[in-house]
Amino acid sequence: MNLTTLVHYFLLLAASSVADGQQHGVPSLSRKERAAALRDEHFGIPTKKSSPPLSHPLQSRDLKPSSPGVSYHWAGAVVPPPSGENITSVTSTMTLPELTAPDDVREGPGGEYFLYVWVGIDGLESVDPGDCNSLWQTGFAGQIKNGVTTWWGWVCYLWDENEDAVFDTYILDASSGDTVNMTVQALNSSEGVFWLDNLSTGNSTSYPVTGGGLCMQQAEWIVEDPWAGGTEAIAYMLVWPDFGTMTFDNAVAYTDKGTSVTPTGTGSTQYVVESYYDNNITQNSVSVTDSSVSVTWLESGPGTKLGASSDA
After folding, report:
1. N or C end of the chain: smaller count of CB under 10 Å?
2. How many other C-beta atoms are found inside a 10 Å radius of the C-beta of residue 277?
3. What are the DSSP E strand ranges found in the chain?
4. How does DSSP classify residue 17?
5. Residues forming a β-bridge with 149
6. Where is the signal peptide (predicted)?
């Protein structure tokens, strides 16, 4: 166990007095309860009847058939560990951009545009349905409304898509132009710590996690076009803003064997987002190096209705 892992481990032990499911005073909620709480707390929402934007695992239904690397809401890179090893940490730094409304007819609901940028472990459904639906992720939410860009730090972890999840936001302030660091560290499949650092302001926060079980088989650097679940069991893809190019710098993951896993590692897949209903709209491009993942905005798809929401 290296020094960094040891420090994180003792921080986790210090947090163990907190009751299961209680981190930073936030209870473990069902996804439906979480959505209701967030709607009332702080999110700008597309309509008066809608739930807040939700980050979501990438399942088989979210992938374009016969088109590897095309999804409906994840853009970025996903890399597995070497055979027989487990991902134990993933990290990156990024300078948060100023967001602008797209220069086309894609108007966001309520004049709002929204995205998530995060690093994570697991959440990509593997060959056998149901595998690796657990997802640990931390990063920043970006919103533009009335021409004003707002950024804030958040964490999300869920053990299974149909079970409890915790989604905690506004845990770290940030602004356009700030350089931030995002880290997810798994001490094992059910204990870990999330870290967010605003390197421009010097502020940081850590967030201990206990419970559930990861597969520890994917590292991710993702810009996400989230969706919002409505009260009528309907999910809507939100319209993401023009973000220029967002680059995950110093992007690296590590395994339980101490192996470094880079964005260009064996088995790496780069994902682009296509509009759910209009497959002619490719919304971004992706490029990777041994230490970076760059996601470039190309176009924003419409805010589309997806059908029955699994959160209803």
Report:
1. N
2. 13
3. 50-54, 70-71, 74-79, 87-95, 112-122, 135-145, 148-158, 165-174, 179-186, 191-198, 203-210, 219-224, 227-230, 234-237, 245-255, 260-261, 269-273, 284-288, 293-297, 305-308
4. G
5. 144
6. 1-21
**How would you class 212 by CB atoms within 10 Å of its CB: exposed for 0-12, middle for 13-18, buried for 19 or more?**
buried
Strand partners, 295: 246, 286
Q: Are 158 and 174 in contact (CB under 8 A)?
A: no
Residue 57 in contact with residue 121, Cβ under 8 Å? no
Averaged pLDDT, 187-201: 96
First to last CA, the chain: 43
Q: How does pLDDT run across 209-219, given as a tens digit for each residue?
A: 887 688 999 99
Instruction: Give per-residue pLDDT as tens, 9-62.
Output: 333 333 333 223 333 333 333 433 333 333 333 333 323 233 445 555 554 444
Catalytic position from the list 224, 232, 274, 299: 224
Structure tokens, 180: 């931030």
**Angle of CA points 240, 244, 250, to nearest 5°:** 105
Q: Between 285 and 236, where is the model more confident?
A: 285
Decide if 224 is catalytic. Answer: yes
**CATH architecture, domain defined by 3-308:** Sandwich (2.60)
The confidence score (pLDDT) of residue 98 equals 96
Where in the chain are the domains?
Answer: 3-308
Closest by Cα among 95, 136, 98, 112 to 53: 112
CA 163/CA 160 separation, integer angstroms:
5
Q: Is the Cβ–Cβ distance between 94 and 221 less than 8 Å?
A: no
